Amino acid sequence: MTVQRDKRGESRDLEINPIFSREPVRVPRYALPDQGMEPDTAYQVVHDELMLDGNARQNLATFVSTWAEPQARRLMAECAEKNMIDKDEYPQTAELENRCVHMLARLWHAEDARHATGCSTTGSSEAAMLGGLALKRRWQHKRRAEGRPADRPNLVMGINVQICWEKFADYFEVEPRYVPMEGDRYHLTPDKAVELCDENTIGVVAVLGSTFDGSYEPVSGIAAALDDLESRTGLDIPVHVDGASGGMIAPFLDPDLTWDFRLPRVASINTSGHKYGLVMPGVGWALWRDRDALPDDLVFHVNYLGGDMPTFALNFSRPGAQVVAQYYNFLRLGFDGYRRVQRTCRDVATRLAAEIAGLGPFELITDGGELPVFAFRMRDGIDTFSVFDVSAALRERGWLVPAYTFPEHRTDLAALRVVVRNGFSHDLADLLLEDLRRALPRLREQHGPHRDADDAGGFAHGAETKNPRRPGRH
Ligand SMILES: *Cc1c(COP(=O)(O)O)cnc(C)c1O
Predict the structure, then answer these.
(1) Is the C-beta atom of 272 inside 6 A of ligand 1?
(2) What per-residue string of b and e applies to 158-182 under the rule 16 or more CB within 10 Å gives b?
(3) How far is the CA of 162 from the centre of ligand 1 (A)?
(4) Over 90: is that where the pLDDT of 259 sits?
(5) How does pLDDT run across 350-362, given as a tens digit for each residue?
(6) How many whole angstroms separate alpha carbon 405 and alpha carbon 400?
(7) Above 60 in pLDDT, residue 473?
(8) First CA to last CA distance, the chain
(9) What is the pLDDT of residue 310?
(10) Distance 392 CA to ligand 1 centre (A)
(11) Whose CA is nearest to atom 2 of ligand 1?
């Protein structure tokens, strides 16, 4: 964080008088004020600064919920003081968490949902750390039992994985093995995954779906290729499915797609409750197919204020409100309601994608038919403006549509991406389309692109490049 300074190099204080016709107040911006102020004054100051954040509903970069029913918000406010870790003091909040885990286990076809193991987290990132740790620990146990070295674990995944997997590998000292993109292949494929596996592979991460373009990775194909690897070599490598988004899309819209615990090789799955689980940030879920998939020595038994409490988490204290809101959504919508919401998202995404393809200068990379997310690029031969110019033009009207370059081997490819979420209606999609249409004549008249990747700003939500030498967000 850098402190903003004025031209004379002094950090500027906040002057409140006389805007709010209150007592004159002068408060430092970057130091704790000596004295406090009236709550209304403080509220107004904070409230006004936050106006500059823009309008979350127009943020088409994020996968995270920006709309919730008033009743969900009310429940969250009612639960504001509840700490998720205090399972002894708030046993009913803990019970609701437990029910959510069971509902997800059934939704994802766990063999024995009553004995499913899982937990809520702050999001998919924490869930990914837990999933990865379980894979690592299981592999270590197996290796040690065989009397073989367990010090060089690796994890196989596509280069398109969300940044949380890069973090997992780095923080927990696992060698990340990324399958690069190649030609028109923008995610992991079975043969490429297997090529990178060896006796030190703790698991393969399959993403449902990719943050780069919304496409589903072929989980069942990856599982089948690993079955084949096992029959040839004896290597038994589990799969973790990163279903941050797709874990709450596929069960409702693609019931015949086999990606979940129906595949015996799938050991664990994560999802973000705050993405297509439709809860405000931050809640995620991590589930294991059975107790064997989650080594018991990772679970701490805390004796806390008189109760024995099993916990597998990176955090200790964390809000309970989001878990309550998740349970509210499950009750409120049911299977059918979720299907309706997700169906609408997919309809809006596919229609908007088709309309954008019809404008002329753009070519779709994906069409919104898997995740309700699509990516598009400039058609060959359009060279007066770039995707970065398009992103900037839309921003003038408040829309956040990220433009970003693809990773290694396809860094030549720059794309825009739209994430359709609950609340982004056909009507709002039309307004976006109109704004895009209106911007095109001006963009066409440019003599060349005004902006490139360096001007893009960092808001691609996981679709940022993994090579730290490249400019961007690091
Ligand atoms: C969003 C996302 C994550 C990270 O999830 P958070 O809930 O934001 O922590 C991980 N993986 C994928 C595929 C995602 O889309």
Answers:
(1) yes
(2) bbbbbbbbbebbeeeebebbbbebe
(3) 6
(4) yes
(5) 999 999 999 999 9
(6) 16
(7) no
(8) 14
(9) 74
(10) 25
(11) 244
Q: What is the mean pLDDT of residues 370-376?
A: 98
Residue nearest to atom 14 of ligand 1 (CA): 244
317 & 178 share domain: yes
Query: In terms of domains, do 7 and 103 share one?
Result: no
Angle, vertex CA 205, rays to CA 457 and CA 214, nearest 5: 45
Residue 8's pLDDT band, with cuts at 50, 70 and 90, is low
For tokens 């988004």, name the residue: 245
Q: What is the CA radius of gyration of the chain?
A: 24
| Inter-residue contact 293 to 134 (CB < 8 Å) | yes
Q: How many domains does the chain have?
A: 3
Predicted pLDDT of residue 110: 95
pLDDT at residue 12 greater than cutoff 80: no
List, for residues 292-319, the tens digit of each pLDDT value: 999 999 998 776 555 566 789 999 999 9
Q: Give me the pLDDT at residue 9, please.
A: 60
Q: Is the CB of 284 under 6 A from ligand 1?
A: yes
Residue 330 CB–ligand 1 contact under 6 Å: no
471: in domain: no
Which backbone phi and psi does 77 adopt, to 5 degrees? Answer: -65, -40
Q: Is the CB of 208 under 6 A from ligand 1?
A: no
* 271 pocket-lining for ligand 1 (C-beta < 6 Å): no
Ligand 1 mutation pick, 272, 370, 371, 421, max ligand atoms within 8 A of CB: 272
Q: Assess contact for 301 and 246: CB atoms under 8 A.
A: no
Residue 469 within any structural domain of the chain: no
Residues 347 and 439 in one domain: yes
CATH code at 150?
Answer: 3.40.640.10
CA 211 to ligand 1: nearest atom: 15
| CB 63 near ligand 1, within 6 Å | yes
C-beta of 268 in contact with ligand 1 (< 6 A):
no
CA of 124 to the centre of ligand 1 (A): 5
**pLDDT one-digit tens code per residue, 163-209:** 999 999 999 999 999 999 999 999 999 999 999 999 999 999 999 99
